[in-house]
Design goal:
Shape: globular
Strand content: under 5%
Number of domains: 1
Helix content: over 70%
Radius of gyration: 18 Å
Number of strands: 2
Oligomer: single chain
Structural class: mainly alpha
Length: 211
Amino acid sequence: MEEYIEIFTLVTGLVYLVLEILQKNAMWVVGIITSAAAVYMFAAEALYASMALNIYYVVISFAGFVSWRRDAAMLKCISADGNSPADYAAAPGSNSADAASLHLNRMTGKTLIWSAAITIVGTALLILVLKLTGDSKPYLDAPIAVLNAVATWWLSRSYFQQWYILIFVNILSSILCFSQDLYWMTAQYVFYSASSVFGLYHWKRGGVYVS
């Protein structure tokens, strides 16, 4: 049963990744389905932080859906007012051919500081909690959970910097899954790591700041 769920999360996870790179709102719906399946999988492996993380994914997917709809509407206004995307603040490396399809928000220094603080403190506290709950890999499970939570929040806010976190955290996730003999999920995260590099390039090249 668990192997079939691994395959299911692999397939839906790949769909999610493609939609994320293309910045399609349907990504959040697919994410809810994928995360629900992952909750069962990680619970069976006693990886409680990753289980809780996927519960968090389900919740934030609703907020992300609303936020992306708002930003997409703002981008349509930009495209419809007679100006080219080049007339607006674009992401580093963006060009007028692709910019109209990707909406971005600027990350403030305050957001970055708070995110770093949450990552450091949250990881330390979660490691302690996971040791008490019998988590099999607390030193990998905890940072993966916290970093993914931060990255997903950044994603819901359309910060292109979320790809930097995902590149790193997907490498950690592939190591974690391999150590648990979850080979389908290992392959999934290896692919995610490479695709996150492309996602970073695509968003930086084709994004327009709407706020």
